[in-house]
Amino acid sequence: NERDGGVAVGGMTTYEQIESSETVPSLLSEAASSVADVQVRNRGTIGGSLSHNDPAADLPAAIIALGGEIVTSSKNEHRTIQATDFFIDLFTTDLADNEILSEVFIKAQPSDSGSAYLKFANKASHYAIVGVAVVVETDSDGRCASASIGVSGAGPSAFKAKSSENILVGSNLDESTISEAASQAGNG
After folding, report:
1. What residues have CB less than 8 Å from 111, skipping those under 6 apart?
2. Strand 144-152 and strand 128-138: pairing?
3. Which of 19, 115, 150, 172 could form a disulfide with 32 if both were Cys (CB 3.0 to 4.6 A apart)?
4. What is the pTM for the complete model shown?
5. Strand 92-93 and strand 2-3: pairing?
6. Distance CA 133, CA 127 (A)
């Protein structure tokens, strides 16, 4: 659902629905299309993936890079949690025992931004040995105005590659700067 300058994706939305959606950011569609195989993409959900927090899952890195907000629901309360605060540790999230992940909200991406998701996958399971989701916004001079990078598979939980983001912001995004940022992606 498009709303409030962004898009809300229900927790029970399948990978296939995300992959074929024209309203979700292309980065999320791209990450969803790389999940496992067609059977999993037809049945698995964004809520299940994010709540499970498998360190090698694809969608957590994309949600982090997109600056997503996780909306939880319980009998008497709703909470909104920034993606960077939601993923705690190996298979551990900020979900309380009485909550479900009801939706994910993603703000509209700036028109002068681009994104990509790439992973080095395990050949048998298709899980990410490492997966990297990137959103980069440029200014009118072509310099990097902002960068947001989520990484899966390289630690006990998906994380934001802050060192790499800091290297990119303000740069011309030339090959040596990108190479330096890539070499720092695992830090932190």
Report:
1. none
2. antiparallel
3. 19
4. 0.95
5. unpaired
6. 15
